[in-house]
Every structure is written in C-alpha cells, then in structure tokens.
C-alpha cells in the first residue's frame, strides 16, 4: 500500500488553508506541519487521528520549506515525540543563528524597505524573536534521497519562493510534493530574502524561481501535491502560465516607468493600489523581483542616492 492523504489545515493567511500530507506506506511520513500555536497543533493531531494515525506512528517529518505556515508545529511535535526532521540545508542559518541572525535579517529588511522608499515601521510585519531549537534535523542538498512513506523520493532544490524550497519527487510514480513552488490557485511570490551570512549581495528570487521552474519542467512528474489548494497534474501548462504572468508584470512595470524615474514604493502604488499597511511588503518584493529580471534584460537600471533607490528605463 502507498497512499498520499492531504490534510487541509486552517491558516489566518490570505490563501485560506495550508496542506500537510500524510504518506502511508511501509512507513508513515508527514510532509509539512501547518501553523504554529496550540490550536493549529490540535487540528493537525485531529486530522491525523481521523486517519488512524498518532504522532508516535510517524517515522519522520519532511519540510518543503520553513515558512511558518508549513513548519509552525515543529516545536509542539518535538515536545511530544523526537521525530527526525528533513529540511534543505539553506534553512540552517535561520534555525541555528540565534538572536544575532534575527537582528541581521531585521536590519536587511529595514534597509530593503528604505531602499524602496517605504517605511519599515508601517509596511512589513514586525516579528519578535522567538528562541526555538529543533532537534534531530537532517539537512538536505540537491539530489539527496529522502524516504517518504517507505519510498525513495529525490530532493530538488527549487529556490525562489523561499531560499529553502525543495520539491520531493518519486521517479517510479511521478508524485511530487511541491510546497509553495507551484500552486494552481495563484501565482507564488518570490520573496526577497537577505544574503547568506558572510555574503554581501542578496539572492535575486525571481531569477532563481525561473531557473527552478526550468529545472522542474524537465522532471517526469505526474501528480503535484502543493502547499496550498488542490492536487493537480500537467505541471508544464501551469509553469507556462506563470511565465506568461511574469512577462505581463514586466510590461506593466515598463509602462509605469515610461512616466519617469520611480521608487519601488511608487511602482507598487501604481500596480497594486489595494495594498496597504503590512501587506505592501508583498508588492515591493514582487516588483523588486521583476525589476531584477528587467535589469538582467538591460531594460532598466537603478540609481541610488543615500539609502533610496530609483529605477528608470534604459
Ligand atoms: Zn511559503
């Protein structure tokens, strides 16, 4: 027997629900965990229970990435059982960096928002430092094999949405756990993130995301089990659709810049006038990603004066 059971969990984020997957086979493995907090953990346990599974039956947890709505229950789970956790090695710094790393990341985002012409106090969610230590973590690299439900899955590193995104796929069945790399219902934001400790320039997430899409389009996949929304097939059509959407956004940004030099905050106001308060960060991140692509294509360039960056057409 080998069966993949979606566990749809509530979340307060805009996407509505988040998926974890229970994989039942020679072993029982959990893919992702849902949100932090006692209620979310209770819901996860109830969903497992509905399928006759308790935490002690699980052999491991595999995380598609470390965003809070996917990895949030890890501390609760590990308070009850000492399960091994598999996650991409790019998550290591944020998991073990402590307060120093938290401050470094916060400083990066403050600077990023200032460079956009946005107010770091108004336009990004403020997070408090929470000391968390995960035990028994195995860090995955590109091509590593991971046992899921007793079958061997291969980890493909697919950065873009986050730096630690992996897609786990099985050659025999074509099943793939895609996390937030590919979602059917809406296009995925490629989030701006700080450089790794010791590096100076930030990753360019949309460029990474496009490379990851190219990588995934070459894999022989059948069913995609995503981090949000319904399970789907024909990932190639979806990838093409997402690439077309990126072109459309690039065209919109170019049209806005025809009126002269603009900050990212100004472009965001023109493109996403419905974004207010903390959600503005989502727009800034999206636009910075597309400006990175336009810069690569030599369609735009930027000038920096003080902390402020302005883009214009070439
Ligand atoms: Zn995510």
Describe this structure in words.
Helices cover 35% and strands 21% of the residues. The chain has 314 residues and is α/β, with parallel strands linked by helices. It has one domain (3-245): 4-Layer Sandwich (Metallo-beta-lactamase, Chain A). β12 and β13 (308-313) form a beta hairpin. α7 (235-257) packs across α9 (280-296) and α8 (264-271) packs across α9 (280-296). The longest helix has 23 residues, at 235-257. The chain is globular, with a radius of gyration of 20 Å. The structure holds zinc ion.
Question: Layout of helices and strands, plus pairs?
Answer:
Layout lengths: L2 E8 L6 E8 L3 E4 L6 H13 L9 E3 L5 H4 L2 H7 L4 E4 L3 H5 L1 H19 L20 E4 L4 E4 L2 E7 L8 E4 L6 E4 L25 H13 L6 E3 L8 H23 L6 H8 L8 H17 L3 E6 L2 E6 L1
Parallel strand pairs: 3-4, 4-5, 5-6, 10-11
Antiparallel strand pairs: 1-2, 2-3, 7-8, 8-9, 9-10, 12-13
The structure holds zinc ion.
CATH superfamily: Ribonuclease Z/Hydroxyacylglutathione hydrolase-like
Distance between the termini: 59 Å
CATH-defined fold name: Metallo-beta-lactamase, Chain A
- Structural class by secondary-structure content: alpha/beta
Q: How would you write the strand order of the largest sheet?
A: 1-2-3-4-5-6
* Number of separate structural domains: 1
Characterize the overall form: globular
Roughly what fraction of the amino acids lie in strands? 15-25%
**N-to-C SSE string, H for helix and E for strand:** EEEHEHHEHHEEEEEHEHHHEE
Total number of beta strands: 13
Helix content: 25-40%
Bound molecules: zinc ion
Radius of gyration: 20 Å
Largest sheet: 6 strands, mixed
Distinct helical segment count: 9
Give the overall average pLDDT. Answer: 95
What is the CATH C-level name?
A: Alpha Beta
Known CATH architecture: 4-Layer Sandwich
Low-confidence stretches: none
């Amino acid at each position: 027997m080998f069966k993949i059971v979606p566990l749809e969990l509530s979340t307060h984020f805009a996407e509505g629900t988040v998926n974890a997957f229970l994989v039942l086979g020679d072993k029982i493995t959990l893919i992702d965990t849902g949100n932090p907090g006692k209620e979310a953990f209770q819901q996860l346990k109830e969903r497992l229970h509905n399928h006759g599974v308790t935490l002690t039956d699980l052999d491991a947890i595999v995380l598609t990435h470390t965003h809070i709505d996917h990895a949030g229950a890890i501390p609760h789970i590990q308070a009850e059982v000492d399960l091994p956790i598999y996650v991409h090695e790019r998550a290591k710094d944020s998991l073990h960096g402590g307060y120093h790393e938290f401050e470094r990341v916060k400083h990066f985002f403050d600077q990023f928002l200032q460079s956009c012409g946005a107010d770091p106090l108004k336009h990004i969610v403020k997070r408090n430092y929470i000391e968390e230590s995960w035990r028994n973590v195995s860090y995955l690299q590109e091509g590593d094999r991971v046992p899921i439900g007793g079958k061997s899955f291969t980890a493909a590193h697919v950065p873009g949405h986050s730096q630690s995104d992996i897609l786990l796929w099985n050659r025999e069945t074509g099943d793939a756990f895609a996390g937030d790399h590919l979602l059917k219902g809406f296009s995925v934001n490629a989030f701006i993130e700080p450089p790794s400790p010791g590096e100076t320039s930030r990753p360019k997430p949309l460029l990474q995301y496009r490379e990851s899409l190219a990588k995934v389009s070459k894999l022989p996949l059948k069913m995609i089990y995503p981090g949000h929304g319904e399970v789907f097939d024909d990932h190639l059509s979806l990838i093409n659709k997402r690439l077309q959407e990126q072109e459309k956004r690039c065209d919109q940004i170019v049209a806005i810049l025809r009126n002269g030099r603009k900050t990212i905050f100004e472009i965001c106001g023109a493109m996403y006038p419905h974004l207010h308060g903390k959600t503005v960060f989502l727009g800034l991140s999206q636009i910075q990603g597309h400006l990175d692509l336009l810069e690569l294509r030599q369609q735009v360039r930027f000038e920096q004066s003080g902390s402020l960056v302005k883009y214009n057409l070439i």
